[in-house]
Write a structure and sequence with these properties.
The N and C termini lie far apart (109 Å). The chain has helices at residues 3-34, 53-63, 77-85, 164-182, 220-234; strands at 39-44, 90-97, 102-109, 114-118, 121-125, 131-133, 144-147, 190-195, 201-205, 211-215, 245-247, 255-257. The chain is built from 5 helices and 12 strands.
Length: 258
Amino acid sequence: MRPAIRQIILISSLVVTAAGLVLLVTAKDRHRSKLTCEGLKVEYADANRFVSEDDVRAYIEKYYGSYIGQRLDSVNLCRIEKILDEQSAVLKSEAFITPDGNLNIRLAQRAPVLRFQKGDTGFYVDERGYIFPLQENYSADVPVVDGDIPIACEAGYKGKARTEAEDRWINGVLGMMAWLSRSKTWKDSIVQVAVSSKGDLILVPRVGKEKIVFGSPDGVADKFSRIEKYYEYIRPSVEEGYYSTVNVKYDGQIICRK
């Protein structure tokens, strides 16, 4: 067979194959256009359960509208993802349709590392200091800082703190709590962290009756070094409960009060 004829046959075969693929894709698209959304499935990328499947369904129905019975090729997946990403506990969502007619949602949720509580109101923060509300259906097992929390945010607020001073304070407390969790000496020795009406952090040790006035959440290593000096040199020389407070908020000082 001549090369020219062989080339013509090869090109003709490719054209026929391409036409077949186009027809197949077109047929699938036509078939897809006739299918409708039959349900919702939610899967999680983490162990948190701040957002339930019922929550996802409610968010979509409230902000997107009816999707059950909608043609699969007309479901606006980008809009659904945007709606879910705007919810407080959602870090990132992915929406996609499967041939069984289900709208599938894959969720990655924010991971709280600390809870701030002021009376009956409170909020979580993640490792970056992002604020998101407490959830009705799920409570995270994380350390709690309570008292006169110097952060002004209404119930349901989400996002970074509104001022640089508030953001700096939150991240300072996060740094202090992270330091505590890494310390072999102090990890299990502090049972409560509170904020006084004056804005000082107050630490309550597991052993002893004295409270430690820590002050602002800075100079963490230096302040704990002075607390260790108190327990090593001062505490052994007095009876139990002799001091009510040990103040290390001022640089280079240990102020003990009866």
